[in-house]
Design goal:
The protein is globular and about 45 Å long. The chain has a single domain, classed as Hypothetical protein af1432. The longest helix is centred in the N-terminal third of the chain and has 23 residues. By secondary structure, the protein is mainly alpha-helical. 36% of the residues are buried. 62% of the residues lie in helices and 0% in strands. Helix 1 packs across helix 9, helix 4 packs across helix 8 and helix 5 crosses helix 8. The chain starts with a helix and ends in a 12-residue tail after the last helix. Bound molecules: fe (ii) ion (2 copies).
């Protein structure tokens, strides 16, 4: 019997995957697995975790204050907010200003590789506020900005709050890749919630 937290994570993983299947099955986006973000966490894992907490925050405001969010743009912006595709730990002098420059790099890469709408662009470009001085101007951008800080703290102090969901997202990616190659992986019953 799965507990309530696990079922929530299954549902969130399913929503994240269904809203961004084109991104999560694109080898260019999956290159984020090659680079470390905070602690032992890859950039890919960090972005999936930010998408998860962005959805949780949005769900809270939707339930409590009846505020509507563009959940698709929220997830896609969160997944691509750190799509800079290099190792910022590399002791190259240009990486000293990574904190200020990577939102722009991620946005340019995202525009090059995917169809990005204006809201997703705002999410990506403004997520480092207040380190970068221009604040986010949409509800979804503010949420990703907050979720990003929370995930960065957890990852830096090695507090595991997302590995279960990340495993579920990776399973869905593997299943999608299997369908393309004819190698179909078994789908756990609970995955169909
Ligand atoms: Fe970032
Ligand atoms: Fe981030």
């Amino acid at each position: 019997m799965e507990n309530a937290k696990q079922i929530t994570e299954y549902k969130l993983a399913k929503e994240i995957f269904s809203l961004s299947r084109d991104i999560l099955t694109d080898p260019k986006a999956l290159r984020m697995k090659e680079f470390t973000q905070h602690g032992n966490t890859s950039v890919f894992e960090h972005c999936v975790a930010v998408a998860k907490f962005s959805l949780l925050i949005a769900s809270f405001f939707e339930k409590v204050f009846r505020v509507k969010f563009d959940r698709k743009s929220l997830v896609r912006g969160a997944l691509l907010h750190d799509y800079f595709l290099y190792d910022w730990h590399d002791p190259d002098p240009k990486n000293r200003i990574h904190g200020f420059t990577h939102p722009g790099t991620a946005w340019r890469n995202a525009c090059r590789d995917f169809d990005i709408n204006k809201l997703e662009a705002n999410i990506i470009r403004r997520h480092m506020f207040p380190l970068t001085p221009v604040p986010p101007t949409h509800r979804e951008s503010i949420i990703v900005c907050l979720a990003d800080k929370w995930c960065a703290i957890c990852e830096t102090f090695k507090i595991d709050v997302s590995s279960y969901l990340i495993d579920r997202v990776n399973l869905r990616i593997a299943q999608a890749e299997g369908l393309e190659t004819g190698l179909v992986l078994p789908i756990p019953v609970v995955e169909n919630i």
